[in-house]
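Reader question, answered in our methods column.
A reader sent in the components of a multi-part assembly and asked whether the whole thing could be modeled at once rather than chain by chain. We filled in our standard form and ran it. Here is what they sent:
COMPLEX SIZE: two components
ENTRIES:
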Amino acid sequence: MRPDWGYRAILVALPLLHFTLHVGLGLERGAPDLLAVGLLLLARELRTGTAAGVGFMLGLLEDAFSLLAFGANALACTLLGIVGSRSRELFLGESVFFLVSYLFLGTWLRGALHWLLSGDEVRSGAAVSLLINGPVDAAYATAVGVALLFVTGAWRTDPRN
Amino acid sequence: MPSFEQERFENGGRRELWLSLLFLLLAGVLIALPSRAQEQVATALRSTVLSPFLLMQESLVQTRIRAEDVADLQERLDAAAATLAAQSTLREENERLRDLLQLRERAGPDFRSASVLRSGIRGSESMLLLDVGGRDGVAVNDPVVTAQGLVGLIRESGSSRSVAMDWTHPDFSVSVMTLDGGAFGMVEPRSGAFREEDRLILTGVPYYTTLDPGTAVVTSGRGSVYPRGILVGTIQELASTEAGWMRSYWLQPAVRPAGVNQVLVLTGDPASGSAEDETGLEGLWFDPEPEPDTAGVGPDGGAR
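And here is the structure of the entire assembly that came back:
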């Protein structure tokens, strides 16, 4: 069974919503990282190379606002796209538990990759970034992403599973 | 989650692998690009694909400004009018004395008011997007200030928007002095464990010059970027000493960039000031050897 169009539309809308909240409305850290959520979900629908390309483009758009670590978002999102796409080989999850775990770990990984790829001058301490801010941001993005999928009806568990 | 089709690596796997490597390589190239080229790519993206989002924030900021409490504005206007009225006699006296001493009037710096647009995106720390640009007279290296003090400077100027870096940027540095002109030095940022803990350090203070906590530190005008007399911060505590040589002090910044919504961009050219300058900016931008009793900030907030 191929994914339905409503689900795909949501996946495309998530990055748009991300830029609307962060840039359009200027909510800064008050807005969740829906770009990572959208990319993680999209990546599981795409081939590895295409997922890498989508990640690259989305990351590049974020880098347009980055004076200090230009390219870090592009590389982090490219890697995330590849990992997300390849995760199909490892996990065939269709459950809510899988969705939540996948989004949480993926969003945290995105933050961790960006932290690693940013220069020493930019990044704050590892403990703060990876163990405090990272999990909080990931939990927030996951909660909002999952809620959006359920509210819009885009998420439907396959009855065969 | 809807189901998917397994990727057939036996058919297209190699192509996907190469495609992935290509994008990874491209991302790596982006990181390695010279900063000038990076800025050009970023500007191109901001002025095309991301432009609608920036326009949305611009219109929101403008709406918020227009919706500000009218009573509050009226109160400020009344207070300013009262201050002006009280100073009018002093001004006349000042003008008379200047005439007697044959001193020319000093003009205030040209400035453009700007709203700060924020992206809040990972990596956008130390960066301010402003809704003024080249068509407003804003150019690269123009200082960005608020009523409280120095914020940073313009890093990149487009036609209608510009990018400024605030003082938390690693490249930021400014030549400063104390208000009495007794000590000169350089101020640079030092990052803390959290972004909110970023602070400034004053280096190069002569060893035998001690500065008390609370001493105001202002731009010295040296370096031809920042005009003289803009408040940078106040002395917090001694940071380190190099025995018999110099001292460093931690500064409490005058402005916290995270809380800035409206700024002024000083658009005059600080290097063009001269005795014959028709703009009358001489001495405001360039006065590298201040007299101890005349250095500092005037009652109008500008350099005296």
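What stands out: The CA atoms of residues 111 and 134 of chain A lie 6 Å apart. Chain A has a mean pLDDT of 87.
Send us your own complexes using the same form.
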